[in-house]
Amino acid sequence: MDFFSAMNVSSSAMSAERTRMNVISSNLANANSTRSAEGGPYKRKDAVFAAAPAADAFSNALNQAGRQIEKVTVAKIVEDPNPPRMQYDPTHPDANPQGYVAYPNINVIEEMTDMITATRSYEANVTAAQAAKSMALKTLELGR
Asked: How far apart are the C-alpha atoms of 38 and 30, rounded to whole Å?
């Protein structure tokens, strides 16, 4: 793996984790939103990651079989299919005739755990990128 491949893989992971963090932030911000543009309460979203080849076609032709380097991409953002959380509050303007309000199916503790995981993964990829940079700089010092 050359310097640019290492940086490409690390930067793709940082970008994916940043997208995941944005989705988590949106979920937390809308944890009590009972109305959305689609109608009904906000629906929790989640980022789906996928592996993709990190090199172009020419580089792939030069690589040996089984040694393909892969980066991460955000394949799509999906909505959670679980039903909303129903809470009894007959005074709420969005209450149904039985007095229940449909709230988003967001578990704040789960979202905070996902946020910590995304942050740690981002930090790990920053460290990997710094290590690749440090190795490249040490290689350049050989010429002195």
From this structure: 14
In the chain, where the domains are located: 3-141
| Spatial separation of the C-alpha atoms in residues 3 and 119, rounded to whole Å | 24
* CA 1/CA 76 separation, integer angstroms: 28
Residues paired with 14 in a beta bridge: none
Q: Is the pTM of this model over 0.85?
A: no
Q: Which two tokens stand for residue 113?
A: 């755990």
The residue ranges of DSSP E strands in 20-131, in sequence order, are 45-53, 70-79, 85-88, 100-103
To 5 degrees, how large is the angle CA 18–CA 135–CA 54?
A: 45
Over residues 76-104, the pLDDT tens digits come to 999 999 999 999 999 999 999 999 999 99
3-state helix, strand, coil in the chain (%, to 5): 45, 20, 35
The span from the first CA to the last CA of the chain, in angstroms, equals 24
Rg, Å, the chain Cα set: 22
What span, in angstroms and rounded, lies between the C-alpha atoms of 35 and 94?
8
